[in-house]
Amino acid sequence: MSHGGVFLGVDVGTGSARAGVFDEKGKLLGSASSPIQIWKEKDCIEQSSTDIWLAVCTAVKSACSLANVAAEDVAGLGFAATCSLVAVDADGSPVSVSWSADARRNIIVWMDHRAVDQADRINARNSPVLQYCGGGVSPEMQAPKLLWVKENLQESWSMVCRWMDLSDWLAYRATGDDTRSLCTTVCKWTYLGHAHMDQWKESDSCDMQACGWDDVFWEEIGLGDLVEGNRAKIGRSVAFPGHPLGSGLTPTSAKELGLLPGTPVGTSLIDAHAGGVGVMESVPEAESKDDLSDEEAICRRMVLVCGTSTCHMAVSKNKLFIPGVWGPFWSAMIPEYWLTEGGQSATGALLDYIVENHAAAPLLANHAASQSVSIFELLNKILLSMSHEQNIPFLSALSQDMHVLPDFHGNRSPVADPKSKGVICGLTLDTSEKHLALLYLATIQSIAYGTRHIVEHCNAHGHKIDTLLACGGLAKNSLYIQEHADIIGCPIILPRENESVLLGASVLGAVAAKKFSGIHDAMKSMNAAGKVVHPSSDPRVKKYHDAKYQIFRSLYEQQLSHRSIMMQALQ
């Protein structure tokens, strides 16, 4: 069925569902957002797939109306979402994953840490599949969460007919095709995507029988029942991201979304990976390296997808095993490339926490509102005036007495220690807005030191990363980006379009509509660079950050030593 010339990307984040309409050059024509419900009780964080689908429909209709686009103009769509876990029964109705037994609550949200004990037990078995996720599963991945449900909610466990990653569920809800993505299954379900490496190329686009499951792994960890029935519950067939699903939108879902039945839908991506697809080719002419082939050049870049948490995406043509960093994942982002995925579990969430829990927060919020600027813009302004008042050589030096370890939600990479805790060193009785600004600066720097640690660690294990690209909410914060450039010593390229994750999702729709031959081809057309932020050329800035980085690294070492002293004391 031939449709018009725009592509729709949908992204379900932690707090909202968003939709964006793009043309074939990747220009955003209109976007809209609709909030989603979330339930939090201690380590348990849950959502509802019914609520999410309603929010998706609302956002899609609003985005199309804002972009002044009719249903017949939409040539294809793609979904991206957090890697939350959805439970549905044989009819596709929700099954509760909650202690509350509330049937609406059928999603375990990505950041839910109820399954720490299950993750530890799975990792203790040292199964060979674990070497493809940095040596061990995180409690944020799906196997530990599935084991938790089986051990704690037997009734739900027996009712579930399909366990799905949220982005796969959205595509299934839209098309009725439950083919899974190589992105979700490989990154979050221990699926070995490279089982397809010698048989299939992206250009063969088809759904492939799922031959990459390690049945022994599922049986060993006590989830052998998921292997039954040709693994129907976790995925019988898989496809490259962007592969067209089923016969496109079903009549029912088309009506709900305000689109035409049969509109092509591409196989999904996790939201961070969609961010990677939305920016990784956004390189201005001036920054492109003439002596490198396209294939080599893309392997020198790392994308920072900076939201509630930050994901660090890099690709390579050969597989690189990096302790404490997830991957290597074959075809999990760009087909036929291996993906390395680092991450920090709380970045945007940490800055919000630091600001909201400071005594000066209400005052700061009032001041920001009266000046019609965001809280972060106001903090950046306060820091600038402090650096002039105190007559210091450069703004970063304001934080010389304050050191932060940003592991407030554990350390995902490269230490891979979910038990790691946050540290703030250098507190006083000061409760002023200026004190909050210093704490905010030191926290931003600590997040950047964490990224530097990840980049250095990846490069020590075979990567050659020399350029960063940043997208997501925090990439709009100029101080955040400048501190990262100074601390890591690389230029940081910002994309032309703010909505990189939505753009990445729309690329899936463009590929499904056969507008491009594949994901990488579509990226070259639809990605575009905006501003480039260069590191400071002042040698004093480098010297300052090198010193603070040493302190940053020592804070974790001290924590380990404190942990062992206390363990001995309690024996």
Automatic annotation (TrEMBL):
Q: Which GO terms describe its molecular function?
A: D-ribulokinase activity
Q: Which UniProt keywords apply?
A: Kinase, Transferase
Instruction: Name the InterPro entries for this protein.
Output: ATPase_NBD, Carb_kinase_FGGY, FGGY_C, FGGY_N, FGGY_RbtK-like
Ranges for domain Carbohydrate kinase FGGY C-terminal: 303-513
Please state every residue range assigned to the domain named Carbohydrate kinase FGGY N-terminal. Answer: 7-277
Residues that span the membrane, as ranges: none
Q: Which GO terms describe its biological process?
A: pentose metabolic process
- Report which residue ranges the record marks as coiled coil: none
Q: Name one Pfam family in it.
A: FGGY_C
Q: Which GO terms describe its cellular component?
A: cytoplasm
Q: Which family does it belong to?
A: Belongs to the FGGY kinase family.
Please state what the protein is called: FGGY carbohydrate kinase domain-containing protein
Gene (name only): LOC123401819
